[in-house]
Write a structure and sequence with these properties.
By secondary structure, the protein is α/β, with parallel strands linked by helices. Helix content is 41%, strand content 17%. A 7-stranded parallel sheet has the order 3-2-1-4-5-6-11, sandwiched between helices. The longest helix has 22 residues. Bound molecules: nicotinamide-adenine-dinucleotide and UDP-4-deoxy-4-formamido-beta-L-arabinopyranose. Nicotinamide-adenine-dinucleotide binds next to helix 1, helix 5 and strand 5.
Length: 338
Amino acid sequence: MPTTILVTGACGYIGSHTCVELLAAGHRLVALDNLSNGSREALRRVERLAGRAVAFVEADVRDRGALERVLRGQRIDAVIHFAGLKSITESVAAPLRYYQNNVGGSLALLEAMAAAGVRRILFSSSATVYGDAAAPVAESAPLRPNNPYGRSKLMVEQLIGDLALAAPDWRAGVLRYFNPVGAHPSGTIGEDPRGPPANLLPSIAQVATGRRPRLLVYGNDYPTADGTGVRDYIHVGDLARGHTAALRRLFAQPGSFTVNLGTGRGHSVLEVVRAFEQASGVAIPCTFAARRPGDAAASYAAAGCAFELLGWRAETGLDAMCADLWRWQSANPDGYPA
Ligand code: NAD
Ligand code: WQD
């Protein structure tokens, strides 16, 4: 049944891709973003891809009054909450900014939802809440984030958990993403980091377009097959479809849930570099560098719970992730126009 969904952080990387899937599933959307790390152009391209309009509200999730007006005025049925800051390094340097934005923003949103009588929410959490738990990482693994960003995500998970305990008519889905990568197969929307990218795939893509001279491979002495770090890369389109599946469950049955969204498969840095070179036809010069502090050797999901609860599993392989990323990056070497 089509419903009206408020998508916070809709102009960002995962939000924009999820909007495409939500529109395809027939939902009406209200997109909210403060444009601190997102682009209005991304949403225009989403509308073009879907052939449907999306209402846009420029606002900050910490502005409870603005949220309440949207929730009531637009008759929202459920919220998907992507809005937040996501750089681990920045969070170490500016922890208060991260707690303020991620925890403060989520608190204001939940208060506004409670006041407006909207009690369905999907929350973007992260595998970073597991710290360096041994792979494959199940949802029941100990939660030991080792940076302020991860702790801010865990705090919001706990906030939502307490709320669901106190008021069982709330239905909440906490989604722990592993490493989202790639772009929409059209190549018209994708990841557009501001400043030098911290993550592997955007870094590789910028080497390919000549924006960066070479890739630094952080560590080649890990206890993995080729010595480089292993991660669970998940295509952003699969991740987006994970949200439509989670939303279906939220509307179909009471109760709350926490699930990993990953593929259950790990790939090393060198495997990713080779797959990207194959997909793009561009050589990626690499230099081995010291391990990055805080990095685990291997992290990938136990992915069975998402299939059991949501009937969803990731389907796209590493080669297609790289091909789609390259289509986006080569057509938009400088990202979205300012
Ligand atoms: P992104 O930065 O591309 O998108 C986030 C969007 O939220 C941006 O458009 C930004 O302008 C907006 N925003 C930030 N603070 C806001 C505020 N206070 N009010 C309103 N809008 C605000 O990030 P993304 O990669 O799309 O990530 C989306 C969510 O998923 C984040 O919560 C992130 O922590 C989480 N997550 C991301 C990853 C990843 O690797 N990309 C992995 C795990 C979890
Ligand atoms: C992947 C691998 C690096 C860059 C982080 C968060 C996680 C989620 C995704 C938000 C590692 C190596 C990287 C480079 C490299 N985000 N690498 N050279 O650290 O697994 O996950 O982003 O929630 O929670 O923790 O992702 O892409 O930074 O690194 O060698 O220039 O690539 O050491 O092995 P990570 P990543």
